[in-house]
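Structure, all two chains, one model.
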Amino acid sequence: MSELLQGRPGERRLYLGNEAIVRGALEAGVSLVSTYPGTPASEIGDRAYEIARQTDLYFEYSVNEKVALEVAAGAAAAGWRALCAMKHVGLNVAADALMTLAYVGVKGGLVIVSADDPSLFSSQNEQDNRYYAKMAGLPMLEPANPREAKDMALAAFGLSEKLRLPVLLRTTTRVNHTRGSVTLGPLAPRRGLGYFEKKPFSKVMVPAVARQAHVRLLAAEEQAKLASEGSEFNRVYGRGDWGIITSGVAAAYVADAVIELGLADRVRVLKLGFTHPLPADLIAEFLAPLTKVLVVEELEPYLEEGIRALAQARGLTVPIRGKAPELFSRLFEYHPGLVREKIAQYFGIPYRGPAVAVPEQVLEEALPERPPNLCPGCPHRAMYYSVKIALQELGLEGIFPTDIGCYTLGLLPPLSMADFLICMGSSVSTGAGISRATGQKVVAFIGDSTFFHAGLPALANAVHNRHDFLLIILDNGTTAMTGSQPHPGVSLVPPGYPGEHVPIERVVKALGVTQLWVVNPFKYKEALAATKEAVAASGLRVLISQAPCHLYAQRLTGKKRRARFQVADECGECRHCLEYFGCPAMYLKAGAPGEPGRMVIDEDLCSGCAFCVQWCECIRPVKMSSKE
Amino acid sequence: MPSTETRNPKPENLRIFLTGVGGQGTLLASRLLGEAALAAGLNPLVSETHGMAQRGGIVISTVVLGDLQSPLISPGEADVVLGFEALEAFRALDRCHGQTLVIANRAAIVPYPVAVGQARYPEVDRMLDLLSGQVGALLAFDAGALARRAGSPLAVNMVLLGALAACGRLPFPAAALLETIATRTNPKFLDSNCTAFEMGADAAGERANWLKRPDHPARAG
């Protein structure tokens, strides 16, 4: 049984922030969870999937975030409690639905998790999604730790039903991926079958209806403001005539800093958890007696702007600072030492941070970096290799619009197979624009999951508008980067996965693509021949590179490698494998002083994919002992 | 409004920084430390790296115990560093202060720029020597070799946990951590995990493995 279904009320468990959110939703009696996987939100869907296999919870990996939100909105309109989780940029995809769903409202509670990613640990930007709550007019809760993540997820459902609005639960990576102690409450029963009540003149957003709906939304926002004023998630502690206002994980850094700097008697702290609408009266009351205020929040000055505007409106002249060159940055994640230092600096407290030794200075040389890399045995690398060789043999330079997934790592040398990337699905449409504007040879790359997410409309567009480029769909049978979640085109699924298979090849043909190649990238000769044809041709071409993600296939089937490979003694100094292929199992072993090094294949890392052996005569299979 | 935080009566703060390479089991190690701390009645915070960074990149996690709410460890503020790989242990020098206990795996995992001859992997002995001059205590040994001897090359994390538990810095006994391992890890690997844990503890008992001994003798684990 899933760990999230275990445990008695009152018991403490160590939950990841994402697990705490799922637990909170279960304690609220959630009936439907939908998501498109994306770090740092992925575990929400993965845990919900586990639970859906064991209970009557409905869960789906939706094809993208917009679809996920709309599925959840439909269920919530019919009275179910629904949770919809996504990473921050996913909310851009779902924004069209979000903005008008705010007008339509909900019947059953609907909680939308937006997992922001300060420092861009696994993202293409670090946008601050708190502005979405403000733009859409939706209530927002911002947890600082797993305990609050559970409490807020639970409370958000009630709030959503009370206000008849979806609620945004806005987290950051440091909350999603921190484990902390969570006290369990009772699991609530799920509601039975919902009922969709026909009320077209409040639910069909044509202009006349929407005008009224906007009026209703503003009234609901006023109610939300009252809820924020009285929310247990907004609280004040400490005393003194200085003030700090903070939210999210920054509130944890503030809490520690106040103690470490000995400021508990000098600073009052307003820790906000209900951050849209802001509790204006509470904030004004907090500001009134203070002489100096610091706002501590990661990313954009969302609180700071709201608080400054409020202070102006209420005639409060207390200095309020936050983002400034000498104070807090709008860039990247904060950390406890940084927040401590800035608090001390702003309030003029003598403080010296710990002495920090710089490893490079101590060593007196640079430390080698350790960039992430495609795994040994990765089918993407094999396909990239064939494209590289095909272009070289044809004497062409390729321009490579790429997309979001493991294969984005093809950016790094020696592959260097990525030239342009904006967002999910952008490879296809930017490829069209680049080829139209330049006539250069464009080879665009997109993964299978990303293709279903946002590639379909772009490919239909490319067919319809007669664009001229080659699209390579890197189909590894799963959503590998985020932890191997299924999608419609998957060839590898977890046991018991109920989804219907939608083969990519059929979809591509149905969209009207006539020049189509399907290759197994590990069959080098065939893959190279097809790639050369596809690269050389003109018009819109699609090549599907089909081979399962090695890691996931191994985990799913438990199959061990059948062979491994080694470099023979006659290997010279051509370095072709290093300069064109770059498998992490291959490395250059330094020779004796004055002697050249030699290539070696690490026997533990070699996946046995047998790709390199097809183009290098010096690579030989090694007899496997039965133990391996 | 009064604080609603529940806080332990003055537990000692302990910040443990774990660093290694994707696939080495740092996340499991940090989670086990957190679970053991929870079982001991503490309020642990464990922060993890997921996603992109796991593809052969550096994987960092932190375990924070005591009267703290911040899950992260700032430069110069780690009390313990568990280095799962020699270079990464050295890279974590910027997290250390003068009293930090560093437990380092001497075994190297070659990063890509080194593999292709674009960068040089610093000599392990030199890195450890420099490290010992900067920190409070340094225990270093080949945890990979011990893991293989224990029957599972993947048990480097258990070796390092065993060594850490034997150093007496944790606010719970080694047996409690071993108990967490027994209940929280795959039963298939239980024997090799326990053996690896014991081997790590033994390695901490070997005088030769201490490149710098702590000023204060270790409390009994």
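The radius of gyration of chain B is 17 Å.
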